[in-house]
């Protein structure tokens, strides 16, 4: 496994040799752009999970519930509006955000459960 995108040797992958050189050039250029976008998605998700993990620690420490459905609803409505403005399918944006939020809530539940466990010294 490597983080290196397609090398020039791998130009076009399966379609190399089956299409005109101009088509292959455009395909390779678009794939380079997709590589960059996917890398930024990974970095953005990593930063988002760092922030939500911190929120999870605050919630677990201060006895707050792992999920905040009202906040989720506001955030989903906001992102659906942004998606429409950006010509992205708002239903897809909603599904994608819900997928991420479900994972965040699982983390928060685990943090709450582990902070509720008695420490080894207390288990007497
Ligand atoms: C991050 C939080 O926890 C949960 C996760 C959310 C999210 O990932 O956007 C939103 C609300 C909460 O259900 C929060 O309360 O802000």
Automatic annotation (TrEMBL):
Transmembrane segments: none annotated. It comes from the Bacteria. Keywords: Isomerase. Pfam families: CM_2. InterPro entries: Chorismate_II_sf, Chorismate_mutase-related, CM_bact, CM_dom_sf, CM_II_prokaryot. Signal peptide: none annotated. Residues 21-112 form the Chorismate mutase domain. SUPFAM superfamilies: Chorismate mutase II (SSF48600). NCBIfam families: CM_mono_cladeE, PRK09239.1. This is Chorismate mutase domain-containing protein.
């Amino acid at each position: 496994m490597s983080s290196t995108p397609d090398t020039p040797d791998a130009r076009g992958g399966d379609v190399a040799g089956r299409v005109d050189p101009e088509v292959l050039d455009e395909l390779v250029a678009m794939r380079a752009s997709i590589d960059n976008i996917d890398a930024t998605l990974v970095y953005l998700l990593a930063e988002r999970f760092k922030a939500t993990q911190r929120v999870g620690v605050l919630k677990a420490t201060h006895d707050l519930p792992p999920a905040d459905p009202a906040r989720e609803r506001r955030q989903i409505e906001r992102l659906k509006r942004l998606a429409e403005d950006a010509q992205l399918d708002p239903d897809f944006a909603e599904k994608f955000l819900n997928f991420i939020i479900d994972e965040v809530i699982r983390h928060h539940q685990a943090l709450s459960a582990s902070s509720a466990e008695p420490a080894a010294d207390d288990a007497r």
